[in-house]
Amino acid sequence: MRILLINPPYLFEFYQETTIPVGLAYIASYLRRNHEVRIIDLNVEKVTKEGFENILKNFKPDFVGFSVTTPIFSTCTKIANLIKKINKNIRIIFGGPHPTALPEETLLNSCIDYVVIGEGEKTIVELVNVVEKGKTLKKVRGIGYKKDNKVVITKHRPLIKDLDELSFPSFNLFPLSKYTGSGFRNGFYSVTSRGCPYSCIHCAAHLTFGKKIRRRSIKNVIQELKTLKKEYKIRWIKFYDDVFTIDKNYVINLCKEMIKQNLGISWWCNTRVDKVDENLLELMHKAGCEQIAYGIESGTQRILNYMKKGTYVEQADRAIKMSRKIGIIPSGYFMVNFPTETKEEIKATLNMAQKIGVTYFRISMATPYPLTELWERCVKYNLMRDLDNYSKYGYLQNMLITNKEISKKELKKMVKYTNLKMFLRPVWFIDSFKSLLKGLIKTKKIKLPLVNVINYYKNIYHFSSDNTEVFIKRA
Ligand code: B12
Ligand code: SF4
Fold first, then answer.
1. Ligand nearest to the CA of 295
2. Residue 114 sits in the same domain as residue 31
3. Same-domain status, 110 and 188
4. Residue with the nearest Cα to atom 46 of ligand 1?
């Protein structure tokens, strides 16, 4: 069978680097064992309506699969409708976080034939095989489909036990030079674990990957890094694990192996502020760790407790100081506007962001993604505006949660002003400049890093909103 996978266009309300969608790359690898796969990433490929029709005519896909997060749901349905208009026999599959949270509701759209719930590799392959052979769908675990105009959701599929079973992601199916995030200093993405045992109320990750941590073997990760180095001459890797340092022994052993193998790859990761210590950071630095993004979230203990983060304000300060001391660039994710959050508490977080010493940063509005605890609370207590308008669920500028203490306009202004001040801090200039210089020396590429810097500055002034317009404009 022929399967076309689509990464839908997402107009960032706030500039983000374009990055290779790792989930689709994994799906593609698993499918390619027995089927023909093509990928279009509409974030980096400008495809007109006619161009799109040509792709469908030439590749003749039996299935088109979309990777769907909540804010891009309506864009995905628009593209799916377009495909059905061109050829109604093409079967449409929606996978990813949104259909995983709301499979029944997703299937109410007539253009969607199947949803894949949760981890997708094994499920999509089984689904395609069963459809190909005309067998019954009932036995395929972890899917939703329609029968006699009724939605059927099959039994839950257990999570993949041994992640080493998966083939490495098929990066070669993507237009690699077009990603602003990877083109600069030849970088790629990797995930060493799936699952997170914590219970932060705003987080949707457990809906796909569960709460138990599963790890690839160190041998498997090293093998992937070596392959990427050999095939693409990569210089850095970004680990997309939710909490990279959750298992200290694993990280120690991985770092020792990286040092032993003399891989010469710089790397970045995400983690929690309570999951690092000086010895660990020193070893990570020695093994090539250049940057760590910490989920700091809030400057007040009451809000950290409200969101069930399980960390203390002081731990953030400690983690940032230790990272700096050792020579790792610390970045921070912050969130404001949780229910009950006062103006003073929001100010405390915005002040903390400016003073704590992070270089790169992201300030988001708390956004209740479907089926998270935050979403359930907000629905129950009627705390959301635009509840059904999924295109408003981007978390960088939309204020979905109503707050009696502060107006939408005032909050946006406060965040905008903080962003402006953050981008004008000397530490931002110095670290960005160093990183730019390193990249230039190593790759002699000037365009992508410069585009990135310019785009970051555009953030200060440019806050656009409705991402659904993008594909239409492009088409
Ligand atoms: C890294 C990351 C990013 C990166 C890169 C995203 C990318 N395109 O790869 C960046 C920073 C760009 C990003 C951006 C955003 N992200 Co993000 N991101 C993540 C993170 C931390 C890891 C994603 C990842 O790569 N996982 C590893 C791969 C293997 O898993 P995966 O992508 O989920 O894919 C698996 C399944 O979902 C499924 N699947 C996925 N696509 C498809 C398609 C088909 C056809 C099938 C069958 C199956 C399938 O199978 C895959 C393999 O098992 C997750 C948290 C998490 N742990 O899931 C949040 C997460 C996915 N992000 C989230 C959000 C909200 C966003 C943004 C909307 C934020 C914003 N700006 O407002 C944007 C939207 C981007 C978009 N294209 O839609 C939410 C999604 C919640 C929701 N209901 O939508 C998550 C879950 C975090 C959270 N808040 O809880 N993100
Ligand atoms: S630690 Fe991170 S991944 Fe884990 S529940 Fe909290 S926000 Fe989600």
1. 2
2. yes
3. no
4. 95
The residue segments making up the domain with residue 38 are 2-153
Q: Is residue 432 part of a domain?
A: no
23/95 same-domain check = yes
What is the pTM (predicted TM-score) of this model? 0.94
Ligand 1 in reach of 208 Cβ (< 6 A): yes
Please identify every stretch of the chain with a pLDDT value under 50, giving residue numbers as ranges. Answer: 462-475
Which H or E run includes 151?
strand 150-153
CATH number for the domain harbouring residue 33: 3.40.50.280
Which is the closest atom of ligand 2 to the Cα of 196? 4
**For the chain, how many structural domains are there in total?**
2
Shared-domain flag, residues 208 and 323: yes
pLDDT score for 182: 60
Is 381 in the same domain as 257? yes
Q: What residue has token string 């981008």?
A: 423
Query: What are the tens digits of pLDDT across the range 355-392?
Result: 999 998 999 999 999 999 999 999 999 999 888 899 88
Helices (H), 121-199: 121-133, 180-183
Burial of residue 428 (CB within 10 Å: 0-12, 13-18, 19+) is middle
Give the model's pLDDT for residue 474. 41
Same domain? 90 vs 209: no
Structure-block tokens of residue 143: 């899917």
In the listed set 102, 133, 153, which residue is the last one of a domain according to the structure? 153
CA-nearest residue for atom 2, ligand 2, is 242
Chain centroid to Cα 83, Å, comes to 26
Q: Please tell me the distance between residue 448's alpha carbon and the centre of ligand 2 in angstroms.
A: 31
Residue 472: inside a domain? no
| Sequence-ordered strand ranges (E) for 247-402 | 266-271, 289-297, 329-336, 361-365
Q: How far is the CA of 69 from the centre of ligand 1 (A)?
A: 7
User: Which H or E element spans position 80?
Assistant: helix 73-86
Q: What is the pLDDT of residue 371?
A: 97
CATH code at position 242:
3.20.20.70
Model pLDDT, residue 467: 34
- Indicate the pairing of strand 114-116 with strand 63-67: unpaired
Quote the pLDDT of residue 445: 64
CA distance 205 to 198: 10
